[in-house]
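SECTION: protein entry
WANTED: fold as tokens:
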Amino acid sequence: MQAIDAEAHVQKLAERYRHLHIEPDRVVSQWRLSRHMFTGLHSLTSLTEAYTRVPSDFNDLRLMYKIALTLPVTTASVERGFSKLAYVKNKLRSTMSQERLECLLLASAEKDVLLSLSVDDLVSKFASSGDRRLDLG
């Protein structure tokens, strides 16, 4: 809200989502009014806090805040996921089930969490989960 070119960003975002029946001029007007309403509050540091303080009558501006809150900041996490997918699903593993693929991707993506687990705890939990033998007779 305090950025010099914030109004231009609001205008640009509203124009991009015009197909949602949002009028960019109305959004900018609502943004200007809300900015004047928050002039005494210098503690507005997040979009979430600004969204909660915007009056419910400012429907277009509230929708713009919702859109801004749901937009990803970068695509790095998505690209990282596809990179892991190429690593996990190679020619040797091309016929695995969807469940196994998802588990391997999760283990690969969250490697730091996986490495922090205690092997002894995992073995004892697996051993205490019960008998897994099948009666074939």
